[in-house]
Design a protein that fits this description.
The chain is α/β, with parallel strands linked by helices. The chain is built from 7 helices and 9 strands.
């Protein structure tokens, strides 16, 4: 079984950290896993977790996210296989393992989002595609993704991931797409399921995962929907 590795930042939640509360409820309901690992800030209500303190002291959130993944990989308490999680990732169906999924070609994303060409995310996507080649797949779904510790050291050295990059002056890499393509993990093409209040009436029965964002979790309707889906406390909360 895998571990679940969550990267958290203090003050990032607009819902009193209820995102991770319900994310863990969804995981316990639908997936068998070993440890829960929290890298960075740990909400007080969490228990039965491995906590690895890590400061958000780098120039951009992308830097800090990469740093926290690498810190987790260097901790002997973290298992060989782990799912890279954000606090607002939710599992909706019972699954035996987390599959690799992608959104098609990175180049397709770049071609269809040219109006965002000046943005940090777009430039990081572009740089990632440049080092991977024209057929690179886009793994930047807001879903869990499985990493293997034994491959990360080679991967980090290859792309110099420990180097601090200021994304505003030099675009970095997007670690999910970099990893998925470098190790040729493959996977099924799906649409990103970024949940909004407007989409509440849309069926989720055929979706394995969905996610939210900080803006959306201010929405009381969205909060109610998530609480209704995952009402039972997990063993990781007081």
């Amino acid at each position: 079984m895998i571990d679940l590795v969550y990267i958290l930042k203090e003050g990032a939640s607009n819902w009193q950290d209820n995102e991770i509360r319900h994310s863990l409820r969804s995981a316990e309901k639908n997936l068998k896993f070993n440890n829960v690992v929290i890298v960075g800030y740990k909400p007080e209500f969490l228990k039965n977790v491995i906590h690895i303190p890590a400061a958000d002291d780098l120039p951009e959130k992308h830097n800090n996210a990469v740093k926290k993944v690498l810190i987790a990989c260097n901790d002997e308490r973290v298992g060989e296989k782990f799912a890279f999680m954000n606090d607002d990732f939710f599992i909706t169906k019972k699954i035996n393992e987390i599959p690799y999924l992608h959104m098609g070609m990175i180049q397709d994303y770049l071609d269809s989002h040219r109006k965002h060409e000046g943005g940090i995310y777009y430039q990081a996507m572009k740089r990632t595609a440049e080092v991977l080649g024209k057929d690179a797949l886009n793994y930047e779904l807001h879903f869990p993704m499985v990493f293997e510790k034994s491959t990360i050291e080679e991967f980090a050295k290859k792309f110099n991931l420990w180097r601090i990059v200021n994304f505003r002056s030099e675009p970095g890499y997007l670690i999910r797409s970099l990893y998925g393509n470098y190790f040729k993990v493959g996977g099924e093409q799906v649409k990103d399921n970024k949940f909004t209040g407007k989409a509440i009436t849309a069926p989720i029965e055929n979706d394995l995962f969905f996610s939210t964002n900080n803006s959306e979790t201010r929405n009381e309707v969205t909060r109610f929907f998530i609480k209704q889906l995952f009402p039972n406390k997990s063993k990781h909360e007081h």
